[in-house]
Amino acid sequence: MRLKIEHRTTYRYASPVTLQAHRLVLTPRDDAELATLSRSLRCEPDADIRWTADVFGNPIATATFADETDTLTIVNEVEIEHRAPEWPVFAIDPGAHGYPFAYTLDDIVDLGALAQPDWLTSGADAVGAWARGFVLGPRTDTLSLLKDMNGGMLDSVAYRVRDEEGTQSPAETLKLGSGSCRDIAALFIEVVRHLGMGARAVSGYLVDPDLPVDDAGSTHAWAQVYLPGAGWITFDPTHRRVGSGHLVPVAFARFNRQIMPVTGDYLGGPDAFLSMEVSVRIRPI
């Protein structure tokens, strides 16, 4: 399936402001399931755009601006070939079929913080106790356990649209009983880490070809879990799906906050900011 994605972000200010450098994480990552055919990134007013890669290998664009403005528009357009199967089959190493299992020493070292719960955040013990509630016996099937957690998040946490910036802590999401896609994904990741497995946050786009063109896509956040043999397996607890059949990954990181699509500041009055609008259009080519 070939897709064209247009992601447009517009900021409006009450009076002209001086824009600081903006960090843009908008370009899909190529892998065996996705190939970028073309890409275009532009800003209004014009910006000098410099490309780098972060510690996770994500392509990062840094936009710097020369002129003051009362409107900033960032438009990212890409054409991709999406090859992810609807019903993937995972070749998990036989030694990891049953939970608990042991990573190799190399995997332990390389996963590092991706396999460690965030003990510095309040409520970590409560999240760990909730995580262990998914384990029904001393020995269970690893993939079934992960699927149960992926499908069971919404039994305790309701999805809600949340316009506030940032991500709730997993403990806060559990206490409130609701959260956005990034909050639910963050909870799933932390639960997986409390059970001793490596997990990472993913940001990108949700694709639903059954919807009208104007509603066929949106920004989205989900998770991946590392299992020996199979590698990184995609879990989307917000939609109870496994695999990347409806997802276009843009960036991977330890936490969602490291891969927000657009981050940047401005110099201006305390009431200068008026609004932000985001639109994502995805259509087949």
Automatic annotation (TrEMBL):
Taxonomy, superkingdom: Bacteria
**Transglutaminase-like domain spans which residues?**
173-239
Q: Which residues form the signal peptide?
A: none
Pfam families recorded: Bact_transglu_N, Transglut_core
Which PANTHER family does the entry mention? BLR5614 PROTEIN-RELATED (PTHR33490), SLL1233 PROTEIN (PTHR33490:SF1)
User: Which protein is depicted?
Assistant: Transglutaminase family protein
The species this protein was found in: Sphingomonas chungangi
